[in-house]
Amino acid sequence: MRVAYRAAETCSSGSLGTNGEAIIMAKRINKDEFVRRVAERMKTKEATAQTWVDAVLDTMYDAFKRGKGITLPGFGGFYLDKRRDGCAFKFNPGQKLRALLGWSSTHKGRL
Question: What is the mean pLDDT, run by run of 10 residues, along the chain of 111 residues?
Fold first, then answer.
C-alpha cells in the first residue's frame, strides 16, 4: 500500500504528537531546499552541502544496486523486498519517527 501525505493533512486519522498536538505534514521540500537546510545546520556553504547530499544519495543507490539494505539508527531502515515479479522498496521507520507519526513506539525522548 502506497501512502502519500499532502500539505495540511494529518499523517493518520487522529495522529497526535507527544504533547497531544496533531502532527501535520508540511509541503514537501525539494532537493535544493533540503541542501540549503543541511548547509544552514552544518554552518557551511551550499556547494559543500550539495556534495555531501549527493554522496549520501549515491552511496545509498550503490548499496541498493548491490542488494544491500541500509539502517540509520534513530531514523529507520531502507531495503529492497525481492519478489517473484520484481522488487519493492521498503522503509521501516525508527522509533523516534514512529512516535512523531503517532504510531506505536517505544521512543521516550524529545521529538
Answer: 36 49 70 97 98 97 93 92 86 90 85 80
Q: All domains of the chain, ordered by start, with CATH? A: 9-100 (4.10.520.10)
Amino acid, single-letter form, for residue 75: F
- H or E stretch covering 98: helix 95-100
Find all residues with CB under 8 Å of 63, minimum gap 6, and list them: 69, 70
DSSP state of 28: P
Which amino acid is present at 32? Answer: D
CB 48 within 8 A of CB 41: no
Q: Rounded to an integer, what is the distance from CA 5 to the centroid of its chain?
A: 13
Q: Crossing angle, helix 31-42 and helix 46-65, to 10 degrees?
A: 120
